Amino acid sequence: MTFAPGDTVRARTVDVAGHTRLPGYARGARGVVVEVAGAHPLADDRARGLDVPAQPVYHVRFAARELFGEGDHSVVVELWHDHLEGPA
Amino acid sequence: MSADHASSTISAEVRHLEALLEARGLLDPGEIDTRIDEFAAGGTPANGARVVARAWTDDGFRARLLADANAALPEVGLSMAGGLQEQRLKVVANSADEHHVLVCTLCSCYPIALLGPSPSWYKSEAYRSRVVRDPRSVLAEFGVELPADTRISVWDASAESRYLVLPRRPEGTADLTEEALAGLVTRKGLIGTALV
After folding, report:
1. Chain A nearest CA to B179, separation (Å)
2. For residue B10, what pLDDT is reported?
3. Is the pLDDT of residue B1 over 50?
């Protein structure tokens, strides 16, 4: 299953041992998919030398209040499918 | 590496690694600098300024640019194919209601193939950590005072896309040529830390 623009998603909370492109400030936060940004092998896996297939990458918009508990702006983070799960 | 890191531990480590690779014949002396020069060749903020000026004067181009920037760039003689592979470009347009600003919180991702090397402040920890959390204050420090009801969107280049801000066309520029308009656009304007 892939996500589509408008879908609510949650960034995973897993604490990756080593390189990850899931910024720490976004972990566990709920956001909305803005756009599909193509498909690429997960950089976290490639950094470990793994040859992995491409998966969808998304622009995901998070409200600052959701990320930091304050602020009226939003932050759009680009995340791989494996960084995300459906809203719990 | 940026010049202000010359004495840092990471620079020493990079030089050591470079020397080891050269000693083993895996890297020619100076090869990294050559590759960086090739990657940045032709990249200058003037490219971004040309893109913006065309978008200001041609609504059709503007629409195509916002829908699929990679497909639209060749119309002004540019592309994102300067690196090992073509990078996806996402152009975000400022409006009366919304202001966009770019950052790479994880490192310093930037559309080098299009704009050339990024400014040093873009790579600083202070900018990268603060602009996601409190963009209004950071923008004010750059001299950008936005109305309280202007929404701010921060774009974190955390994956494979690169970004470019399309600033609003300044008032009183109706008579200017496309070339003159391009002359108004700054590198900060293309990152979102200036209005134009």
Report:
1. 32
2. 85
3. no
Q: For the domain B43-191, what is the CATH superfamily, name and number?
A: Nitrile hydratase alpha /Thiocyanate hydrolase gamma (3.90.330.10)
List of chain A residues with pLDDT < 70: 88
Which residues on chain A are in Cβ contact (under 8 Å) with B98? Answer: none
- A1 domain residue, yes or no: no
| Any domain includes A35 | yes
Nearest CB among B106, B153, B156 relative to A73 is that of B153
Per-domain residue ranges of chain B: 8-39, 43-191
Q: Which two tokens stand for residue A44?
A: 């976290």
CATH code of residue A55: 2.30.30.50
Nearest to B180 by CA among B190, B193, B188, B170: B170
Q: Please tell me the pTM assigned to this model.
A: 0.90
Residue B53 — φ and ψ, nearest 5°?
Answer: -60, -40
- The encoded tokens of residue B158 equal 């955390």
Minimal C-alpha gap between B63 and chain A (Å): 16
Interfacial residues of B (vs A; Cβ cutoff 8 Å): 88, 90, 105-106, 132-136, 151-161
- The chain-wide mean pLDDT, for chain B, equals 92
**Residue B2 reports pLDDT greater than 70:** no
Closest CB to B159 among A37, A61, A67: A37
- What is the rounded distance in angstroms from the CA atom of residue B128 to the CA atom of residue B76? 31
pLDDT greater than 50 at residue B129:
yes
Domain membership of residue A2 (yes or no) is no
Angstrom CA distances, B129 to A12, A60, A61, B159, stand at 21, 19, 18, 17
What is the pLDDT, as a whole number, of residue B85? Answer: 77
